[in-house]
C-alpha cells in the first residue's frame, strides 16, 4: 500500500433491498488484513459529511456537488454495472479513476434472457394465458412451438452479458448474431456467426428471431428501438430488454404488442422504476414483465466484493485496475 493509511468510504444504503445482505463483516476483516481505513455508512447524508476525506469511494451514488468536495478522491468503484448516478461531467474531466462491477451479474442476466427466449419459443406465454382462462389452449394453432436449434438470436451489444448469452445460445444450437459499437472483425467467431459494427441494426433484426438488448444507456442508444424497428420486426420476432429502460420507446412497444406488430416482448427494465401500477404494460398478455430482477443472484456480493478487494490491492501497488470505465465513452 502507499505510504500512510489508505482511506476508503463505503456507501451501502440500508433503505435499498439489495444491500440488506451486504457483507459488512468482510470489509472489517479485510481492513485489518490490508492495513487500510474503511468507513462504512448507511445513509447518503453520511457520505456528504465524509466525502472530503477518502482516497477511495465505493458506492452507486455520488452527486456532482459532493464530488467537488472530494479533494483527496483518486478512485471510485460502483458496485453495479450502471454508472449514471456517479459519472458527472466533473468526474469525467478529472484524473479520478472509475471502475464498475460489470460482469458480476453477467451470467444471471444472460440466463434470464435465455429464460425469456424459452418462454416464447415453447409457447409458455400462450399456455399461461390459457391457464388463467381455465382453457386447454391449442398452442400450435396460435403459434407453433419452436425448437432451439431453429432459432436465431441477435445481440445488440457484445459486452460481458452478450458474450455470456452467446455462449449459452450457441451451446443449445442457436445461430447467434451481434452488433457492437466498434467496427472490425468478428472477435468471437466461436460464439457469433456474424458480427456487425454500428449502423447495422436493420441487418441484425432481419437475421434474428429474438432481438436482445444488452447495450449501455448512452445518448446514442436512447430509444434505439422505436416504431420503425418494431414494425420491421414483424409478428414472427420477439424483443428482449435486459439492458436499460431508455433503450426502448415504451409507448411504441406498448402499441407494437397491443396491435401485434411483433410476436411478443420480455422487459426487465423500464423508463420509470418501479413501473407505475397504472401503466398499460401490465395488462398485455404477450409481454413477459419482470421487476428488474435479471441480475439477481446469490453470488452477487461475493463477486463484487472479491473484485473490489482485488482492485484495492492493485491500487495500492500502483497497478492497472480491472473493469476500468472509459469515462469519455461512458462505459
UniProtKB/TrEMBL annotation:
Entry keywords, A to Z: NAD, Oxidoreductase
Domain of life: Bacteria
Domain annotation D-isomer specific 2-hydroxyacid dehydrogenase NAD-binding: ranges: 115-294
Sequence ranges assigned to domain D-isomer specific 2-hydroxyacid dehydrogenase catalytic in this UniProt record: 59-325
Statement: the UniProt record of this protein carries the keyword Cell cycle: no
Molecular function (Gene Ontology), one example: NAD binding
Keyword NAD: yes
SUPFAM superfamilies in the record: Formate/glycerate dehydrogenase catalytic domain-like, NAD(P)-binding Rossmann-fold domains
InterPro entries listed in its UniProt record: D-isomer_2_OHA_DH_cat_dom (IPR006139), D-isomer_DH_NAD-bd (IPR006140), NAD(P)-bd_dom_sf (IPR036291)
Family per similarity comment: Belongs to the D-isomer specific 2-hydroxyacid dehydrogenase family.
PANTHER family, A to Z: 2-HACID_DH_C DOMAIN-CONTAINING PROTEIN, D-ISOMER SPECIFIC 2-HYDROXYACID DEHYDROGENASE NAD-BINDING DOMAIN-CONTAINING PROTEIN
Protein name according to UniProt: D-isomer specific 2-hydroxyacid dehydrogenase
